[in-house]
Structure formats: C-alpha cells, structure tokens
Amino acid sequence: MLGTTVLTVLVISIVLPFITHTVAAQTKEKPEVLPHGPYGNSDWTWIKTDTVNIIFPAGGKKPTFLWWYTEDTSNVYVLKYKGLIEFMTFHAPYYQHVYEATEFRLRTMLNDEYFEPGQQMFRQQARLRIQQRLMQLASFYGLHRSYLPFSACEWNLTGPVEVPSDDPNYLSFNFTLVSVPFPNLIFAEDNIIIRCRFYYSETTEDVEGLYTYSVGAGELKMDLIIKNWTWNLDLIRPLLDEFAENGIDVPVNKAGLALWINLASIPIRQVDLAEQDVETQNGLLETQSMTQNMYVEGSQVGVVQNRTQTSLEQPLRAQANQRERYKLRFATPNTTLTGFFKYVPNALIREGDMTTVVDVSASYVPAGNHMRLFLAYPYFGDKTLEHDPSIGLETMQTLVTSETLLVLVGITSIMAVVVLAYKWKRKTINIVGPN
Length: 435
What we know:
Layout: H1 2-15, E1 22-24, E2 32-34, E3 44-48, E4 52-57, E5 64-69, E6 72-88, H2 103-115, H3 124-135, H4 137-141, E7 147-149, E8 154-163, E9 170-179, E10 192-199, E11 203-207, E12 211-215, E13 220-227, H5 232-235, H6 237-245, E14 255-266, H7 272-277, H8 284-287, E15 293-296, E16 299-302, E17 314-316, E18 326-330, E19 338-343, E20 346-351, E21 354-359, E22 361-366, E23 371-378, E24 384-387, E25 389-396, H9 402-424
Antiparallel strand pairs: 1-25, 2-3, 3-4, 4-5, 5-6, 6-7, 6-14, 8-9, 9-10, 10-13, 11-12, 13-24, 13-25, 14-23, 15-16, 15-18, 17-22, 18-19, 19-25, 20-21, 20-24, 22-23
Helix pairs in contact: 1-9
C-alpha cells in the first residue's frame, strides 16, 4: 500500500511540471475604441483594454488583425486572412496545394481517374469530344481561377458598435467583401463576410442548439460567412453528365473550399509595417515575423524554415478527447500571456430554415518564421457556409509534447511493473532511494 502511494506521488511529481495550464486573458474594464492605431495610424481601428489590444484596418483594406498583451509589446501577434482556395477532394478531405481546382489539375485528375481507365466505354465520337473538352476546360466551361486573394479585393468595415444584451455586452463589427477585380470571381462580391464580436466577459455561444462552446473575455470571436459560391466542378457538370451517360460516375461533390490564414508575430516597433502591408499584396509582416515555434496537437512545431515549396501541407487531426475548439498557440518564451488562434471543428451549412453541421478539416505548412494554416470546408453547393474562428491571449506553462508524454508513460509503466513484481514476491522495496 505504501509503495503504491509513493509511486503515485512520484509519478505526479514527474508529470505535473509538464502539464499545460491555460487561462484566458480577462479584461477588467469596458474596452475603449479608438479610430487610429497605436502610433496614430488613421487607417486603423484600435480596441484597447487593460489586458488585450487589438487593431485592424479600416477604409476598405484586407482583413488583418494584430493583438498583444498590454504589458508586453515585444510580441504582437498577427492573423492575416489571405483568401479562399477551391480544391479537389478526390484523394484527401483536407487542403493540399497539389489538388487546387485549376484547369490543369482538373484536367489531369479527370483524365487519370476516370477517362483513361474508362476510354473503352466511350464510343469513338464521344471519346474524341471528351478529349477535346478536357484539353480546353476553361474555354468550354468558363472556369474561374482557383484562388481568390483577399488583398486584391476591396472590403467595407462597419462598426464597431456596442451591442447590449442579456448576456454580457459586446462590440460588433463586420468586414464585407464588396469589390473583386477578377471578372470570373465577381460572384463573391457581397457574399463573403467576416462578422466579429469582442466580448467584455466570458460567455457561452449556443449554436442553435446544435452545439455550444465558451468564449473568454477579451477574445475576438469571428464568423466567416460564404454565400453563393460558384464551383468549378459545377461549371463542368455537362462534361460529368456525359461521363455518366457512358457509365462512368464522377462524384459531383468532390470539391472543397479552403480558407488560407497566415499566423505570425512581430515586435510593436514594426507595427507601422502593417500600414504598408495592407496597401500591397506582398507579405511585409510575414517577412519581418519572428515566430520560431507553434504548439500544434500538443507538440511544438518549428516554423523558421520555409517549406512551402518543398513539402505538402500536413493535416491537423482532432484528438478523440478534443473539447469545444481546436487551438494553435504561439510558443513565446518569457511572456505572461501568449497569443492563440482557435476554431470550432464544425461548420454550419444553411439553406432557408434548414441547418446542417459538417466537419472542418485543417492542414498547415511552416512558411519561414510564420505558419500557413488552411481551414477546409466540404462542398456546400449554392448554400451558405458559416464557421467560427477566434483569437486571444492566455497564460501557458510548459506544454507536454508527444515525445515527453511517451517517456512519462513508459517510466510509469516500468515502475508499476516493478512494484507489482516485488509485491508478488512479498519483498520490500525503496522506490525513493536510500536515506
């Protein structure tokens, strides 16, 4: 009995220093909303509290958010919404750049997956016609480019305004995409909205009784809304119908839409770069980012090297005990509060009064002192998609890694076997060593 007790105490003493402890940053006062940035930048809006500061561009600029702990300006965290990418899901449900829905990749996948293996099923005239269609998909069906870059578009910011409610009050503001410079992507105008809420105190979001999750005080909660998306796979439906008429079934929903997000960090002295960044399509903030590591799936991931040209995006896999939302944290040593980005692993698909829940997959790649993150949504036709990411601050002690956890489990198992073996032989052992 004494040996088991000592073993328990010893294991706890080993594991305890490695356990992650997170506490959301709590604001202590009503936020102040300023029509400028920390250096008087006129094209920025500043939400300022005693704990967290958040700035974002006004005046029709791309949706970018910078936030930091009031008492530590050495780490300003950056979330940049880069754009939307349509991709194919024939081989994986998460985004990888090799499956983007470009004309070339659509043609290659359709040819390799369906046409070449089933050529003998087509009559000669149909075979020649389909070969011609595959070679000139864009001209026959009016395909749009697979990537919609938000930085090339014009956005309208409404708010922030205070919204009184029975629950805690909050600030509300929206980014709405109002102008797209690409003729074949004009369907996105007024159909992409980033709806934001900044809560004064902790609250619980109830999503129409389908699921709930908590939002901390000082956390900026967002809803990405996408309506009336035109899919390249839908544009080539006449071709897919011709496949079907010849006995070859090509799934019409094997497409996805990925939200590309960049996560970075800079010192506050470089915040003035943000003003230049929103005026261009270049990644000025990313080139000055000092992020070295992120905590992903309980492990530390290095992002110093740029692997965007040499590696495929790696999937994020929700763990079996995943609660509420999936979280990525900035690994910022010697700081009181670190930045996080998190998202609900589900999205809503709305059609009239009907709402369904679908899974959200994700993938990432180190991109040179910052991370590229891709949140992938399954095909939703002409319906409306709604998803919930957020940013904020929290305290974090040393995070246990998967390797450390395996070592600890191994040590615990070996010690347990030793105790049982000696107990079986009725021998007395001293686990903690001699006096």
